[in-house]
Amino acid sequence: MAIEREYYLFNKEELQDLLAFTEDKGLSKREAVRRLxxxxxxxxxxxxxxxxxxxxxxxxxxxxxxxxxxxSCLSFVMGEFSDAVSILAIIIxxxxxxxxxxxxxxxxxxxxKKLASPNARVIRDGxxxxxxxxxxxxxxxxxxxxxxxxxxxxxxxxxxxxxxDESLLTGExxxxxxxxxxxxxxxxxxxxxxxxLFMGTAITRGKCRAVVVATGMNTEMGRIAYLLERExxxxxxxxxxxKDLGRWLVSLSLIMTLLIVLIGILKGQSIYNMxxxxxxxxxxxxxxxxxxxxxxVLAVGVQKMSRNxxxxxxxxxxxxxxxxxxxxxxKTGTLTENQMSVKKLYINRRIMxxxxxxxxxxxxxxxxxxxxxxxxxxxxxxxxxxxxxxxGFFSSNSxxxxxxxxxETTLVKAYYETGHSYxxxxxQYQVIAEEGFDSERKRMSVxxxxxxxxxxxxxKGAVELILERCKYIENEGIRVPVxxxxxxxILKANEIMAGEALRVLAVAYRPFRTNIRAESPxxxxxxxxxxxxxxxxxxxxxxxxQAVASCYRAGIxxxxxxxxxxxxxxxxxxxxxxIPAGGKVMTxxxxxxxxxxxxxxxxxxxxxxxxxxxEEKLRIVRALREKGEIVAMTGDGVNDAxxxxxxxxxxxxxxxGTDVSxxxxxxxxxxxxxxxxxxxxxxxxxxxxxxxxxxxYLLACNIGELLSIFIGIVMGLPLPLLPIQILWVNLxxxxxxxxxxxxxxxxxxxxxxxxxxxxxxxxxxGMTGHIISEGILIGISTMAAxxxxxxxxxxxxxxxxxxxxSTLVFSQLFFVFSCRSEEHSFWEIPLYTNMYxxxxxxxxxxxxxxxxxxxxFSKYFQTQLLNSGQWSVVFLLxxxxxxxxxxx
Length: 888
Description:
- This protein is α+β, with helices and mostly antiparallel strands and 888 residues long.
- The protein contains 31 helices and 26 strands.
- The strands form four sheets. Strands 10, 11, 14, 15, 16, 17, 18, 19 and 20 form a nine-stranded mixed beta sheet that branches. It has an eight-stranded mixed beta sheet with strand order 8-26-25-24-9-21-23-22, sandwiched between helices.
- α3 (52-58) packs across α5 (81-115) and α28 (797-818) runs parallel beside α31 (868-887).
- The longest helix is centred in the C-terminal third of the chain and has 41 residues, at 674-714.
- The chain is elongated, with a radius of gyration of 35 Å.
- 47% of the residues are buried.
């Protein structure tokens, strides 16, 4: 296996020869495909999953199904061949339906896991691209930075301040500093391999380039795959409650069935008939399909969310989403478009509008520093403009595709728009060392070597932080000491630009008289020369405004948490409708001075937080939760992870989010859009409502079936339904219609209701009364049809049973439409909004008519043809209960 080589011993040249890659171009795409075929996909094998045949066989291992099979055998032994064949056929049909439901649920859950699979940035044919981490092969050149999970075992080629959390493999909680240098000692343990990266570990700081040396089961993680055994499919709280409900219903159904059988025998019914009826009733009364339908509805709902860019990592989030009372959201890219552009610059002590085009010398220096002080990569090679002869000029349509932080790509794009090349810039000014940006520092600096072989520190970051480190200011190319008036003017300009909803960064530099050593630039971030301010606009998303309004209608309070200036945050929040004009904004400095108890008292009043560090998010979440709020929180960085974990629903950004933030989150936004969160909340509410609908439907129908037999037995009448007919009712009504209800597209007013209490019972809001009343009416209607057939029409027993049989089926098929809403009558909801339900009822109707009108089936089900008068009775009795309940 490839992992057995000690790659930490080799230098760069030896690695390139051994793995056949180049440091600038990586592998070719063709070679990557060949190696993928040779080495296989980069995955850790899971324990064996249930196969198709196993899922099918499992349908017949249920205790009640086994009793039914025994009953079929008993019928055969006693010479009741038609009963035996009919029961066996229904067992197989029921098993097929259960198999289809469970198989679809398994496939849906597998698809969900695939959706959340990580990506990796890799250089192939000299271009940077994102690929599925499963497609990595040995020899691939990958780029990693803070927040990424290492996707495969790799040897570091180049690094800048790289630190890695390897506790998953080594147990050491302290982060490890990494190096690119080869190590001249054999037999090192993992913790001592300072130039190696291992699958599953997390980058906590810095960035690097590394070459993949092992994938899949050949990695160190593959060797200890037992640490990553497949996670058990944990039940959601709702599923656990329904499982408990199922046990309770099984016990109650068996007691009721036993009682009916005993009463029937005491009333003179044959033991055989009552045994068969009892088994059939028990099978019909127990909602054995409930767990499969719940799982399938959750899985299908989650897949629907994924199509709307909300990728659910944990099924529990689906339930909790509908209970959300507060959504705490980042601003940039979530509430705004994340398509920033440079609009204004503060240079030479005045604010100027940025005008792209030409060789703009005035703007060139500030944008040169800002552009190089970034971690932007080119996805495609540069194309010189064919319309201009000026060397190095780039037209707007020739700017290459950029990959990196949106703010940094905006600055690089602006540099191109001044007529300069970012590629040429990196060649002319070589970056020797870097101190990366993080949410605590709020700045980034690089040590560069100029074309004149002198060294300078270039820096960009938050205005206040950069300004306090400045000793000089540059005006018209002349460097002079900075005065208090200069600082006041700069801060005033910052406020003016922020008041126009611009995101403002300060740019500065520090020249050195001697060539200082390439150490960490962070120690030289003082005595800076202030160059200017860059103001970028990121306008609010149009759909975010609508989503905020939808939140308020739904009883959800949106809260903006941003690292931007308080004035910028207030302007954007007002445009979005989060706060009224002049609304309160709390800054990070104010928050730090506030005790936890004071924050808890005021947290309900604050809807915009500005200049907030990620660790302060955790305090905000805790304060909200202590007030009884159900909190959804967005985040993208490593430092956001604690807050995401603390929130009821952690939401990671799919585009700019780090792997660590995605790992601890319950929901991932593929488009980083606030409106997607609101859509996910709406879908979560719909899914929960749909589960309530089919529970209501199943239980009411089961009560009706039990009651119709119970009334007949108590009255001393012949069995109103034969055992085979009871089983058929269960098959026709409990399968497709219930599943179709679970796929219902809820009414439009689902986001006009307040959030539900997460602790409330599934039977809240009077649902228990609805279930019992409708079940009683279905049972009464069935018995009424049976009695009218005998005493009003003088029909024979088979005809009476056929009328009762049909009334029971069609009562349930009418009732399914009433279950679509708890607020509206069934005639107020257009039928076309759930074509699945129309199809399910149509199929069930055809199946019911088939056992009456097709001689082959009528023989086994002992049914008789009904005349128009008898059908009229069946129709009226089937629909009256649903109409009556809806009118009430």
